[in-house]
UniProtKB/TrEMBL annotation:
The keyword Ribonucleoprotein is annotated on this UniProt entry: no
InterPro entries: Cof, HAD-like_sf, HAD-SF_hydro_IIB, HAD_sf
Gene Ontology CC: cytosol
GO molecular function: magnesium ion binding; phosphatase activity
UniProt keywords, alphabetically: Hydrolase
Keyword Hydrolase: yes
PROSITE patterns (alphabetical): COF_1 (PS01228)
Pfam families on file: Hydrolase_3
UniProt cross-references to PANTHER family, sorted A to Z: HAD SUPERFAMILY HYDROLASE-LIKE, TYPE 3, PHOSPHOSERINE PHOSPHATASE
Protein name according to UniProt: Cof-type HAD-IIB family hydrolase
NCBIfam families: Cof-subfamily, HAD-SF-IIB
Organism, scientific name: Anaerococcus octavius
Length: 275
């Protein structure tokens, strides 16, 4: 029996215009009322998730939000981080130095602010900070306290430059950090132990739930570790090709409330896996 449903947000839970559909809200309400724990999992910080948490009535005990691809795990009831895996200012400076030959900008974020050393931040950095609902601070990276922590370090630039970089990633970067391309203009860099799967495993352990009791729904490559932790993995119809082989079921697209469709099928099957 499924006791925990983990759901990616962008490209999965919300429409291409970042909206929640009535069908998705209704299905999640039903699952929660049946005692199923819900964990939203996103690259967004908690500031960019609170509105969704409230709209879905997930601000109750037993529901969680995985933020910044697993860097932070928040308890939706207390709105406080309960665990996570982080990076330090030295990591930010190392990565910034490694990529100086590329026409990209390196930034970092925690659950309070978005940080960049670039006085003229590019449009991608500005948009990401706005979507994340975090203030953008221009700061010299040497000015951070040594004990400062970040959830994600972000590499952003034009699609052509990002493709060039992704195909020629410095080995020092890939050896020491977890990197994932989550948009044509964005590569996220995190602690080597950080991913959505790691976070979901931690939540399940705290709840006393095993992997067979987890259903995970996603659409992007960074959702693969999360689907691998689930006994029942669901891919969106609009999922990238790399994700679909990891799925037990392909649901409808995010435009057609694929999350709600999959949850309704689960409920109709008494919370058991379906085909």
């Amino acid at each position: 029996m499924i006791k925990l449903i983990t759901i990616d947000v962008d490209g999965t839970l919300v429409t291409p215009l970042k909206r929640l559909t009535k069908a998705n809200i209704t299905a999640i309400d039903k699952a929660r009322d049946h005692g199923v724990h819900i964990a939203l999992a996103s690259g967004r910080p908690y500031s960019g998730m609170k509105e969704l948490v409230n709209k879905l009535n997930l601000n109750q005990e037993g529901n969680f939000t995985v933020c910044q691809n697993g860097s932070y795990i928040f308890d939706n009831y207390t709105h406080q981080p309960i665990s996570g895996t982080y990076q330090k200012p030295i990591d930010l400076k190392i990565i910034d130095d490694l990529l100086k030959s590329y026409n990209v900008q390196i930034s970092a974020m925690d659950h309070e602010s978005f940080y960049s050393r670039h006085i003229k931040t590019n449009i991608y950095t500005k948009i990401d900070a706005k979507i994340s609902k975090l203030p953008l601070q221009i700061i010299n990276y040497d000015d951070f306290n040594e004990d400062k922590t970040f959830g994600r370090i972000l590499i952003m630039g034009k699609k052509s430059e990002m493709t060039k970089l992704y195909n020629n990633m410095p080995q020092e970067l890939t050896d020491n950090y977890y990197t994932v391309k989550t948009a044509p203009f964005l590569i996220e860099v995190m602690n080597k132990n950080t991913n959505k799967g790691y976070a979901i495993k931690a939540i399940a352990k705290d709840l006393g739930i095993n992997s067979d009791e987890i259903m995970s729904i996603g659409n992007e490559k960074n959702d693969i570790p999360m689907l691998e932790q689930a006994g029942f993995a669901v891919a969106m119809a609009n999922a990238v090709p790399e994700l679909k082989p990891h799925a037990d079921f392909i649901t409808k697209s995010n435009l057609k409330s694929g999350v709600g469709y999959a949850i309704e099928k689960l409920l109709a099957n008494n919370l058991e896996k379906f085909t």
